[in-house]
Amino acid sequence: MRLDERQVAEVVGVISVSELRVWVSEGWVRPASGGGGQKFDETDVARIRLVCELRESLGLEEDAVPLVLSLIDQLHGLRGELKALAGAIDDQPEDIRDRVRGAYEARMRPRG
Hints:
The protein has helices spanning 5-12, 17-26, 42-57, 65-90, 94-108; strands at residues 32-34, 37-39. The protein is mainly alpha-helical. It starts with a helix and ends with a helix.
């Protein structure tokens, strides 16, 4: 699904095209650009809905939005890295996996 600004405003329902343009200029949303102008995919629409939720339902001030989005982006990136690391560990022989698991568990134990 690729939507233009007007379609996104209609689908989301609580944002105007002009407000969406501000969000894009602020870098809150980064749609793909091409010969037909900016196109928004499912991820963009989900991010727009998230910003709407943060602003409307949770009352987040405009100047706090970039910080919250940055933290969410960092968490998402770390999740991807952890998934890749877990996959790399799973690809190892069983004895190596057991050693890594033991080392991890030892580091996670509370120190007293």
